[in-house]
Amino acid sequence: MKTVKRIIILVVIFSVSIPLFLKGSVFIAPITGKLAPDMEGDDVRKMQQRLKNWNYYDGEISGKYDLKTYFAVRDFQKTYNLPVSGIANEDTLTAMGLTTLAKWGEVYAQSNQTSNEQLLARAIYGEARGEPYEGQVAVGAVILNRTRDPKFPKTVAGVIYQPGAFTAVSDGQINVPIDPNSTVVKAARDALNGWDPTNGCLYYWNPATATSKWIWSRQIVKKIGKHYFGK
Amino acid sequence: MSIREKLLDLKRRLSDRKMYSIVIVAIAAVAMWGFYQYKHAADLRQELDNQYNRAFYDMVGYVNNVEVLLIKSLIANTPEKTAATMQEAWRQANLAQTNLGQLPVSPNVLANTSKFLTQVGDLAYSLNNQNMGGKGLNEEQYKLIEQLHGFSVSLEQSLIDLQNQITTGRIKWGDLANKGTRLFQKTSENMPNAQFENIEKTFQEYPTLIYDGPFSDHMTQTEPKGLAGEDMDVEQAKQRVMEFFGPDKVKAVEEIGRVDEGNIKTYSYSVKFNNVPEDQTATVDVTQKGGNVLWMLYNRPVGAQEQINVDQAKALGKKFLEEHGYKDMVDTYYLKEDNTAIINYAYKQGDVTVYPDLIKVKIALDNGEIVGFESKGYITNHTQRNIPQPKITMEQARALITPRMNVLSSGLAIIPTDYKTEIFTYEFKGKLNDRDFLVYINAENGKEENILLIMDTPNGILTM
């Protein structure tokens, strides 16, 4: 009885302390980039063990990514609504709990990329969801242009959360989660990859609703959808 | 029952003693709830006020430090000491700018103040680099620092004025930030922004700063080098759009606007295609000079099936570029997203890879169609360069790299800097601790110019 209690306490302490780790410099990352057919090794063995425990896999724990493993991974992906490929990519490995605590720097590039992407997508959604596609990319491009201009903060988050800069932030629309397949996510990616329909603009406004007199002192460079873009 | 009767009935019931106490209890409960809500809102507001105060006081402190550091750098006599001072000024200016961005003042009111802080930091950083190379400041740079010091003194004074008004309670951040209450909206709109506009007046005479940093003013004034050819009218440029997609694919091209401002003047077109739903259009910007496609985006749903792989896509992109007059382009990096591949192509002059002359091609992997094109880098930078003979040999350059890195391949490359100049380098690709790196050694003087970490992710190769 005592040992059971101890185990429970340990598990509780451990699970409570994981979020604490995350706050610092450590992140959860998949144990490896991806596992694909014909690969061999310890990581494959670990995955087979999990799949067997959960009844997706009935072969032996060989450490070889064979046909049976392939189908087991497919079944697992189907159950968890992941893209069904039979290849255990990072998302699949994370869903299986095959993760490790990585140091901040190692996953930095990717996590930075995704967080900027989400933030930008949310801003685009809040500001331009009814606009044509290039109008959405344009709003993303304006935000990114601001990060490169001395008059504005230097980070995407800094620009988006600058008080009073965007109405979608002031009224909280920015916090609405975005479907990863939505077009605003695609628009955010195109903007991050360097497409700039505005050719370097720093401002945009809707002539029908803009209340600030100041904004009309800006030079209009382009009109896309309902928005004017200017410098 | 009429309303009058109902009211009488209610009065009668209220006069009942028991009913009285129930109503009183109910009212008390509502009052308490309201009070609690009020208190809660006030607490939150106070908390927010405190945050604003912290950002403001922090900023005043940092601006003060910048001022002191700028004057110190005028006195410092050795490059090492100047470098240390500049490094600190850079840090403090950045912190001041970050805190400035958190104040509840509309961004355009403080735009020039922000620009000043960014440029002071940026200038300090570039001077720091210069001093670390052992080169002291020259007369012009001293003058520039003196000038900037003057601005920082006036900024400091206006901030201290403002600080006094805040400490005596004449300005409340709550009034600035609170847009919810209609009653105060009128006054709050004008009052505090006016206070900040006084600060902004400090910068009306602010000079144009030119130095080697990414936020220097000369950055926005560069003329595109890669634009050649005749000026085109709307119809001629439209013809170029048809050629870009292939005349047999295009159903209609419609002009939707033009940009006559800035360095690159363009026409915009919307393109409809044959056998494709009407709402799936592509948008293209074509330069007025030379009729080059600056960017194109074709937003169509891309199927989930990967019919062609990245290597095939790379070949398709190269073929497309060659057919459209972009010769000698080589693929460098790629990224896979939403079953499309975004491939970077750089210009290759002789055996030198010229990274600034960049074209990005986005290819749908379901059928190999080009769904995106971006050539701003190429148009801005492309020119036939006079590349000199390297002053140091490949072996000499290689000897300068840490022996811990295992060099796998090498070549010559021209790389861009943050401030739109170019450096002629040796490029070494190698491994250290199982991570891939690119190291750039200046081919003229052997300086280690840049180190990039290659992220070989499942989605593509990224550099950092």
Secondary structure layout plus pairing:
The complex is a heterodimer of chains A (231) and B (464).
Chain A: H1 2-23, E1 26-30, H2 42-53, H3 67-79, H4 90-95, E2 99-103, H5 104-128, H6 133-147, H7 156-160, H8 167-170, H9 183-192, E3 203-205, E4 220-224, E5 227-230
Chain B: H1 3-15, H2 17-75, H3 79-100, H4 111-132, H5 139-167, H6 173-177, H7 182-201, H8 234-245, E1 250-259, E2 266-273, E3 282-287, E4 293-298, H9 310-323, E5 329-337, E6 340-349, E7 352-364, E8 370-374, H10 376-381, H11 394-399, E9 406-416, E10 422-432, E11 435-442, E12 448-457, E13 460-463
Could you please describe the fold and organization of this structure?
The complex is a heterodimer of chains A (231) and B (464). Helix content of chain A is 48%, strand content 10%. A 3-stranded antiparallel sheet of chain A has the order 3-5-4, covered by helices on one side. Chain A has 2 domains: 23-101, Muramoyl-pentapeptide Carboxypeptidase, domain 1 (Orthogonal Bundle), CATH 1.10.101; 103-230, Arc Repressor Mutant, subunit A. The longest helix of chain A is centred in the middle third of the chain and has 25 residues, at 104-128. In chain A, helix 6 packs across helix 9. Chain A is mostly helical. In chain B, helix 2 (17-75) packs antiparallel against helix 3, helix 3 (79-100) runs antiparallel to helix 4 (111-132) and helix 5 runs antiparallel to helix 7 (182-201). Chain B has 464 residues and is of the alpha+beta class. Chain B has helices at residues 3-15, 17-75, 79-100, 111-132, 139-167, 173-177, 182-201, 234-245, 310-323, 376-381, 394-399; strands at 250-259, 266-273, 282-287, 293-298, 329-337, 340-349, 352-364, 370-374, 406-416, 422-432, 435-442, 448-457, 460-463. In chain B, strands 1, 2, 3, 4, 5, 6, 7, 8, 9, 10, 11, 12 and 13 form a 13-stranded mixed sheet that branches. Chain B is extended and about 100 Å long. The termini of chain B are far apart. Classes of the chains: A mainly alpha (231), B alpha+beta (464). The interface between A and B is large, with 44 and 51 residues.
